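Q: Given only this backbone (44 positions), what sequence would you predict?
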């Protein structure tokens, strides 16, 4: 269940890509780090 929530959070953050050019997310326990950069509106 926790894994599904993490995936949902990542997808939700992907929607933020429209508002922010790039961002980095690290989980509280430091095990999951996601870095997203947007180029021409596409998440990389």
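A: Predicted residues:
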């Amino acid at each position: 269940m926790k894994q599904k929530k993490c995936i949902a959070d990542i997808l939700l953050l992907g929607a933020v890509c429209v508002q922010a050019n790039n961002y980095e997310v690290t989980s509280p326990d430091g095990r999951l780090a996601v870095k997203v950069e947007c180029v021409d509106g596409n998440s990389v």
